[in-house]
Amino acid sequence: MLTSKQRAKLRALANPLDTIMQVGKGGITDNLVSTISDALEARELIKLRVLENSDESPRSAAEALAEATGADVVAVIGTRFVLYRASKKNPRIEL
Questions:
Q1: Which of 14, 87, 93, 94 has the smallest number of CB atoms closer than 10 Å to its CB?
Q2: What is the pTM assigned to this prediction?
């Protein structure tokens, strides 16, 4: 679980990041979870987006993906959300 200070630091680090994946009308699939887990291992902090045609709300998608990947939800803003999980092999972000 992240403290508010850690969350604030991660939000600041996430600001310049590009959105690397999106949740579409297919929803959250095993393939999407696997891809996001790999991205979290490589980058630790990722920004995603929920498309308008998705049945998921950004908050519910963020929480479901965080639970499925063992990540923390850093922020949900509009249709975008940020997930964080420390890399097991190569941790880069110092909290």
A1: 94
A2: 0.93
